[in-house]
């Protein structure tokens, strides 16, 4: 008999994982909590919030699952994996102490400095700090980071000195401290590393588009689109990122009382001379990076995730296809501010793959739900159209935008330039 698995979360990342698990030959039954309209099409949704730890453990027990995959960071920081493991249920995702790498940017920075991992310099600012001196130390642009989980919205990068100082002051008022980081020049890439005490493996690297507007203008978002593999991560950059960043972190995490078992998301900045450094660590899969990464895994996804959850990764290494993937996020009016919700999504939003001679495309749902019999928007990032091509990244882009043209949502918008750093217009 095949496995029963439970995915925790309800975004595009979780929909991509759900599709991968439904397609895993070793899996019989996929449950998602709370899920979205897209996951309900191919799996069973449960009405338990991703923040309700006790009820999630009970749900996993009642379903008698073989594995829980925790999508978002908040339940990991709150100890969901710890509770599941205490109850004998394998969980993909680190325990609470491991999740502090994302839960506290201050903690993560300290670990990196202790291990000699390349990263931006930092100043800790409190009500007693001399702010003028602090902002003049490195000058513009200023990178100000709140030390709280803020869904990608606790960071301001600005060339406006007044804006930087104002964000520093309001953050100190609410959190009593804030971090001011040295600005790193270069190109960003995301490396998702499957990791447990037995070993690690990097999935194909991707590049996200964090700013809301075309040409990378405007406010930071959770991510407006991504593609993989990202050519900026050359073999040499990859080799250096593994030896200078992943290897020391893996040794550190494996030596902890409870070893890290899950995805370590390494947010890389690659300088013009090809030196990688760390912008941030996350303790989960990226969103929308997962939508372009999971489809490139050609082996059984559940075998991989379960092996990590049980500390057996070295015995179950994955294999990858040579395909290219690109995803474009459709965002609701107002995003990344408060989005307009409850609008009807029309057209073809099915997540069944549309197949072409040398590729395929789908819709990954994120902020979607049902109102009566209609699919409606429920969040800022509503869905993403994803193209996978065996031919080229250009072709993957064509498939993604073609798929997106089939879906309509009043007031929504998307970036037309996903992949612009490597693709011509
Ligand atoms: P974080 O939440 O730490 O990943 O920051 C969000 C985004 O802000 C990153 O993806 C970068 O685009 C930008 N950013 C953060 N830290 C830096 C830095 N030290 N230098 C340049 N850009 C940064
Ligand atoms: N796309 C950025 C993140 O998942 O944090």
Determine the strand fraction and express it as a percent band.
Answer: 25-35%
Largest sheet: 6 strands, antiparallel
Measured as a percent range, the helix fraction is 25-40%
Strand order of the largest sheet: 12-15-18-24-21-20
Which residues form runs of ≥5 with pLDDT under 50? none
Count of individual domains? 4
Termini gap: 49 Å
Give a structural overview:
- The chain has 425 residues and is an alpha+beta fold.
- The protein has four domains: 3-93, Rossmann fold (3-Layer(aba) Sandwich), CATH 3.40.50.20; 122-181, 2-Layer Sandwich (Dna Ligase, domain 1), CATH 3.30.1490; 184-322, ATP-grasp fold, B domain (D-amino Acid Aminotransferase, Chain A, domain 1, 2-Layer Sandwich); 324-425, Phosphoribosylglycinamide synthetase, C-terminal domain (Glycinamide Ribonucleotide Synthetase, Chain A, domain 4).
- Helix content is 30%, strand content 28%.
- It is built from 13 helices and 25 strands.
- It has helices spanning 12-22, 37-42, 53-63, 73-77, 80-86, 96-103, 105-115, 131-138, 161-175, 235-254, 289-293, 301-309, 393-404; strands spanning 3-9, 27-34, 44-45, 67-70, 91-92, 122-125, 142-145, 155-158, 178-181, 187-196, 199-202, 207-208, 211-213, 217-220, 225-228, 262-270, 276-282, 324-331, 346-347, 354-356, 359-365, 368-371, 374-377, 381-389, 407-408.
- The strands form seven sheets. Strands 12-15-18-24-21-20 form a six-stranded antiparallel sheet. A five-stranded parallel sheet has the order 3-2-1-4-5, with helices on both faces.
- A hairpin with a 5-residue loop joins strand 16 (262-270) and strand 17 (276-282).
- The longest helix is centred in the middle third of the chain and has 20 residues, at 235-254.
- The radius of gyration is 21 Å and the shape is globular.
- The protein starts with a strand and ends in a 17-residue tail after the last strand.
- Residues 120, 143, 145, 152, 155, 157, 181-184, 188, 210, 220, 267, 279-280 line the site of adenosine monophosphate.
